[in-house]
Design brief:
Blueprint (H helix, E strand, L loop, with lengths): L4 E6 L4 E8 L2 E9 L1 H4 L7 H23 L8 E7 L3 H18 L3 E5 H8 L15 E6 L4 E8 L2 E7 L5 H11 L6 H9 L23 H14 L5 H30 L4 E4 L6 H14 L3 E3 L10 H12 L24
Parallel strand pairs: 1-4, 4-5, 6-9, 9-10
Antiparallel strand pairs: 1-2, 2-3, 6-7, 7-8
Helix pairs in contact: 2-3, 4-10, 5-6, 5-7, 6-8, 8-9
The protein binds 5'-O-[(R)-(carboxyoxy)(hydroxy)phosphoryl]adenosine and zinc ion.
Length: 345
């Protein structure tokens, strides 16, 4: 059977995205970012996000079809992120997808946003096959989530650990805000950190020796206290040192916990995805750990680390190929391991 051709919409947060995938092969991927809309507020304003999704969703979908050289009649299925995320934002994508499903009669697959991130690792533009969905541990690090997942197959996900407070990306965004670096914080801290000394300031590595959960809110407070005591960094070098020291604290914890998850599950393979997976320091540290410990490492390509719809289309295509019936339930807070989303072999 040829790989299913799927059109997906993703609107859970601040990117309006649509994409067409043939299995895991990306035919088109269009992302309309709302960063400029939210930047003046230093964070995402949910109401503005919903309105911006509404304004661009039809254009983004048309472009994804045109870029992919695909007509609606060619498709095997439709997909949409139905949670977790901002409820108003999710509803825009879901209603657009429902409209398309009604008009075409195609099956509509609701996909968990974090299942999409899992699939972002194996998205391929030019390969017919991104490789089997082999058992692995996934480190998912984004603005809303930081979790370690034991993946034993399609729809068979067990959360091993998660953040107890801030997500890793949230920590980057909050620290960038307090340093006056604007929004979103990850990319700018990443750039500055590359010039700085990660040993300049000894920030805490919360819970590093303890289990598989994370905590990043104390680190953010530690940076705030440092700035209070010493004043805001006055030179580019001081700013770079502060960013490098903060980033090293996040990276050390993420790497240590990922290694612990591999050891406790006995899995031999690590996948890494989500917006923070684009981070240069994290990618370098993980690659070094993989070499040292001899396990295969697969990081999502940088262009697919942030939110996109190709990852949603690929996840749906896998479900279509496996004969999983479509289902859709808008759930702003449901976990990746919810039984309602499990695939029972
Ligand atoms: O996956 P994503 O696009 O959206 C969510 O599902 O949350 O992740 C966005 C997060 C933001 O917090 C952003 O600051 C962070 O990913 N991020 C980064 C980098 N690029 C984006 N964090 C660290 N280093 C980066 N290079
Ligand atoms: Zn995401």
């Amino acid at each position: 059977m040829p790989d299913p051709l799927v059109l997906a919409i993703e609107s859970s947060c601040d990117e309006t995205a649509a994409a067409v995938c043939e299995g895991r092969r990306v035919r088109s991927s269009v992302v309309a970012t709302q960063v400029e809309i939210h930047r003046p507020f230093g964070g995402i304003v949910p109401e503005l996000a919903s309105r911006a999704h509404l304004a661009s969703v039809t254009t983004v979908v048309s472009r994804a079809l045109a870029d992919g050289g695909v007509a609606l009649a060619d498709l095997d299925a439709l997909a949409v992120t139905d949670g977790p995320g901002l409820v108003g934002a999710l509803l825009v994508g879901v209603m657009a997808a429902r409209g398309l499903a009604t008009a075409t009669g195609l099956p509509l697959y609701g996909i968990h946003h974090m299942e999409g991130h899992l699939f972002s690792v194996s998205l391929a533009d030019d390969r017919a096959d991104g490789g089997p969905f082999v058992p692995h541990v996934a480190l998912l690090v984004s603005g809303g989530h930081t979790e370690l997942v034991d993946v034993s197959g399609l729809g068979a996900y067990r959360i091993l650990g998660a953040t107890r407070d801030d997500a890793a990306g949230e920590a980057f965004d909050k620290v960038a805000k307090l340093l006056g670096l604007g929004y979103p914080g990850g990319p700018v801290i990443d750039r500055l950190a590359a010039e700085g000394d990660p040993a300049a300031v000894a920030f805490p590595r919360a819970m590093i020796d303890d289990g598989l959960d994370f905590s990043f809110s104390g680190l953010k407070t530690a940076v705030a206290v440092h700035v209070d005591r010493h004043g805001p960094p006055r030179t580019r070098k001081a700013l770079a040192d502060l960013c490098a020291s903060f980033q090293a604290a996040v990276v050390d914890v993420l790497v240590a916990k990922a290694l612990r998850a591999l050891a406790t599950t006995g899995r031999g393979r690590l996948h890494v995805a989500g917006g923070v997976a684009a981070n240069g320091g994290l990618r370098t540290a993980l690659a070094a750990a993989a070499r040292r410990h001899g396990f295969p490492l697969a990081c999502a390509e940088r262009r697919y680390c942030g939110d996109n719809a190709a990852m949603i289309a690929a996840a749906a295509a896998a479900r279509v190929a496996a004969g999983v019936p479509p289902s859709l339930h808008v759930t702003p807070n449901e976990g990746l391991d919810s039984p309602s989303r499990a695939v029972v072999p």
